[in-house]
Amino acid sequence: MNRMALLLPIAVIALAGLLSSIFIVDERQKALVLQFGQIKAVREAPGLYFKLPLIQQVVRYDDRILGLDVPPLEVTPLDDRRLVVDAFARYRIDDVRRFRQAVGASGEALAENRIDTILRAQTREVLGSVTSSEILSADRAKLAGRIRDASRSEAAALGVEIIDVRLKRTDLPEQNLDATFARMRAEREREAADEIARGNEAAQRVRAQADRTKVELVSDSQRQADIIRGEADAKRNAIFAQAYGADPEFFDFYRSLAAYRTALQAGNSSIIMAPDSEFFDYLNRTSPAPAARQ
Asked: How far is the C-alpha of 72 from the C-alpha of 203, rounded, in Å?
């Protein structure tokens, strides 16, 4: 009985020691085996591993692709038009031994601070070598690629691989927005004034052409009317002359009736003349006039 009581604590200690010497690395992790702060082994493949209990410890790092948002920063392109750039990066721990040597026990927090410093410096350098128009155009994907490539060599010293860098937002600083909007408004107003002036000029040309066409049409119509009126007057005079030659007496009679019709209309002024006036020659006749000689 005393022997069982002695063996039981020993078995428990041995089992605890065996369990503390076993560790598991899954497919999402990489692990380092440290002994008094020194790297003794690197475990990158998933599986079951052993270490010395109490002497060695295991530090695990994420083997997945990690994200890092770069806080907004101001850049000054070649045209001195300041911009606020918001970017993000995707990275992964490529070499855990070098990563541990570079950041020590601080781990991913210190690594992200250093990556952020690298990305900010490379972003300013790359975007400072181009104009703001290039940054705001579709070419900024190529600029992000240049930032990624330039950051990789520095990040490799940390045991980190920069997989991708993207520019999420590119805006003007708040203090420049009002001035920029005012300049844009002035440009649009100038363009609108130019369009209005060109429209007025075109309208004036159309109006002048229409007025000239109107004058030409009216003049041509008046000329044709005068020609027709002259031809009609000539025909009328020819008819009158023919009628007068055929029967002068009847022509005189017709002309006198026309004179009566015109002079004796209602509302005309009063006419005072002698009864034996020649005006009433046909009214005073009591017998028909002799027929004209043939």
From this structure: 52
Q: What is the mean pLDDT of residues 239-255?
A: 75
* Architecture of domain 66-171 in this structure: 2-Layer Sandwich (3.30)
3-state percent helix, strand, coil for the chain, nearest multiple of 5: 55, 20, 20
Partnered with residue 70 across adjacent β-strands are 87
Of residues 32 and 285, more confidently modeled: 32
Q: Residues 118, 154: contact at Cβ < 8 Å?
A: yes
CB 27 within 8 A of CB 33: no
Kindly give, in sequence order, each residue whose CB lies less than 8 Å from that of residue 137, ignoring residues fewer than 6 positions away. Answer: none
Sheet arrangement for strand 29-35: 38-43, 29-35, 56-62
- Band (pLDDT 50/70/90 cuts) for residue 178 is low
Task: Decide if 159 contacts 98 (C-beta within 8 A).
Answer: yes
Q: Is 267 left (phi over 0), alpha (psi -120 to 50) or beta?
A: left
CA angle at 181 for the pair 176 and 183, rounded to the nearest 5°: 95
| pLDDT, tens only, 65-86 | 999 998 888 888 887 777 888 8
Rounded Cα distance, 187 and 173, in Å? 20
pLDDT at 176: 59
Q: What angle do CA 161, 89, 129 make, to 5 degrees?
A: 100
Domain boundaries, the chain: 2-62, 66-171, 210-284
Helix (H/G/I), strand (E/B), else coil: 44: coil
- Model confidence band, residue 292 (pLDDT cutoffs 50, 70, 90): very low
